[in-house]
Amino acid sequence: MAQTQITKDMIIADVLAVDPTIAMVLMQSGMHCVGCPASQGEALEEACAVHGLDPDDVLADVNEYLAEKAAN
Questions:
Q1: CATH number, domain containing residue 40
Q2: Is 70 exceeded by the pLDDT of residue 1?
């Protein structure tokens, strides 16, 4: 199965639909409200801005996590 690549413009709900365990990566990055209603309509980049996080860093962490998971 092909690995899905997460992008900054993806809605948080769609990111979590790819793999719900991504929530752990987001929370470790400092985004502790991945389950809040606002996150269901907010893009990853927007959520990072709200939390003062660099979206490129968070995106790299998420995609690295998925790549490692796919390799195992």
A1: 1.10.3910.10
A2: no
Total tally of structural domains belonging to the chain? 1
| Whether 34 contacts 23, CB under 8 Å | yes
Structure pTM?
A: 0.88
Q: Is residue 43 helix, strand or coil? A: strand
pLDDT tens track for 8-45: 999 999 999 999 999 999 999 998 877 788 878 899 99
Token code pair at residue 55: 């979206």
Query: For residues 12 and 40, is the Cβ–Cβ distance under 8 A?
Result: yes
Give the C-alpha separation, 40 to 33, whole Å: 10
Amino acid (1-letter code) at residue 67: A
